[in-house]
TrEMBL record:
The chain holds residues 120 to 392 of 395 of the full protein. It is found in: Cell membrane. Its cofactor is a divalent metal cation. This is Sensor-like histidine kinase SenX3. It comes from Branchiibius hedensis. One of its GO terms (biological process) is cellular response to phosphate starvation.
């Protein structure tokens, strides 16, 4: 294996007592975790520097423009939107680092997926209206359930629908579809927006990765939304995937293992019948 990945050690003190203790440690995983943590810190400090520097400049500009109420108003508005973005960034950094630390959910419970989708859509009603985007929801009428965390699943759907709204032009439509079969619950978020170039598709789930940084910034994006979705799906034993074509739009699909009805809840079958 080579000492890159395995470290093997013998406890010498144990030899005189007639046995040998062999310690075998796989360092690959711990090294990877360490590297991920270090990269994350570098990314985070870089991402925080920009809005903080922007706010410092804006506060100086407000001070200098104190005799011009119109300019003061303009700079204050920009300062407000920067601070909203900064607090969202901090919130999402905390959320992502929590998800990265624990790969499993603490206390999964039975979650009604349709209520997560409806909560997410309720949150975004005003955003969609402001951007003149129609959001439609279709489902087969059943109420599929999964084991998981209601708040996290709502966040995952909200992130996808928010992106669908933000990367689409006014007058277009976003369709959210809930499907279920015996084993899988799927949530599809389809837009008629800008689409994503094929070469970028592999990278958009990386934290802080943006195809068009200026557009992401304009819509208050943090570059963390899809990384959060990816981790939430993984923590639920599921996955997220994307189909997209430039100029045609995108469809993001979350697939989660369906919760199976407990034995006692299943219809009783009389073996003599
Ligand atoms: P952001 O906060 O920048 O939206 P995300 O992690 O949510 O960050 O998304 C990463 C990048 O993927 C975005 O910056 C954008 O370029 C691209 N993207 C995500 N969703 C869509 C979509 N529905 N249509 C087009 N591009 C998208």
């Amino acid at each position: 294996f080579g000492n890159e990945r395995l470290s093997i050690g013998v406890r010498a003190g144990a030899l005189d007592r007639g046995f040998v203790l062999l310690l075998i440690e796989d360092r690959t995983q711990s090294r990877r975790v360490e590297e991920t943590r270090r990269d994350f810190l570098v990314n985070v400090s870089h991402e925080l520097k920009t809005p903080v520097a922007g706010m410092t400049l804006l506060s100086e500009a407000i001070d200098e423009a104190r005799d011009d109420p119109e300019a003061v108003h303009r700079f204050s508005e920009r300062m407000r939107s920067e601070s909203v973005r900064l607090s969202r960034l901090v919130q999402e950094i905390i959320e992502l680092s929590r998800l990265q630390v624990s790969e499993n959910l603490e206390q999964p419970v039975l979650v009604d997926v349709e209520s997560c989708v409806r909560d997410a859509l309720d949150h975004l009603r005003m955003v969609a209206q402001d951007r003149e985007i129609t959001v439609a929801f279709t489902s087969s009428g059943e109420r599929p359930t999964v084991y998981g965390d209601q708040h996290l699943l709502t966040t995952a759907v909200r992130n996808l629908v928010e992106n669908a709204i933000n990367y689409s032009d006014p007058g277009t439509r976003v369709t959210v579809t809930l499907q279920a079969d015996a084993d899988l619950v799927s949530i599809l978020v389809k837009d008629q927006g800008s689409g994503i170039p094929a070469v970028e598709l592999d990278r958009i789930f990386e934290r802080f990765y943006r195809v068009d940084a200026a557009r992401s910034r304009r819509t208050g994006g943090t570059g963390l939304g899809l990384a959060i979705v990816k981790h939430i799906c993984a923590n639920h034993g599921g996955e997220v995937s994307v189909w997209s074509e430039e100029g045609q739009g995108s469809t993001f699909t979350i697939r989660l293992p369906a919760a199976h009805a407990p034995e006692e809840a299943q219809p009783h079958q009389n073996p003599q019948e």
